[in-house]
Design a protein that fits this description.
By secondary structure, the chain is α+β, with helices and mostly antiparallel strands. The protein has 2 helices and 6 strands. It is elongated and about 85 Å long.
């Protein structure tokens, strides 16, 4: 899955550890936007050696929901989970939302062993509109018009797996 998503509210980033290198301001409501890179791997599938003379008849196991044999269903559930959690989660951080999405993909797909998300931050800043007599930058929490910035802003990624 490679999809760009954005929500304009319901995301914060506060109460994090600060040190002399911290430059990020705390914010209790912010735009959350990212390009979702989702990958997953299935549990090992054992295939027995064929016993027929031509060695062509394999026993592939059950096609249970969430297994390798349900790859289309897994892909659809993973996409649905990602979009639903992103949209509806009152996000304490990108990391927290990422973890919730990965947990749900594992919970709803028994055959998935590992889920990997990479979520690069896509930041938006208030547009300075004072040149037309509109205050949009102070305080930043009252801004209504934003523009994306191209500067790198961080990559949040995680690998979540079954034990």
């Amino acid at each position: 899955m490679d999809t760009v998503v954005l929500k304009s509210t319901g995301s914060s980033f506060t109460s994090f550890i600060r040190d002399e290198y911290t430059t990020l301001a705390e914010v209790d409501d912010r735009i959350f936007s990212t390009a979702v890179d989702l990958q997953y791997t299935f549990t090992r599938v054992d295939i027995t050696t064929p016993v027929d003379d031509k060695k062509l008849n394999f026993t592939l196991g059950e096609s249970a929901k969430g297994s390798l044999w349900d790859a289309t269903g897994v892909a659809q559930r993973a996409r649905d989970i990602t979009l639903k959690v992103f949209a509806e989660d009152d996000s304490a951080s990108v990391q927290a939302t990422l973890y919730k999405m990965a947990q749900m993909v594992l919970a709803q797909n028994d055959g998935v062993q590992v889920v990997t998300y990479a979520l690069p931050n896509k930041h938006y800043i208030p547009v300075d509109m004072r040149y037309i007599g509109v205050e949009n930058v102070t305080p930043p929490s009252k801004a209504e018009v934003f523009m994306p910035i191209a500067a790198p802003s961080g990559l949040i990624s995680a690998i979540v797996s079954r034990k």
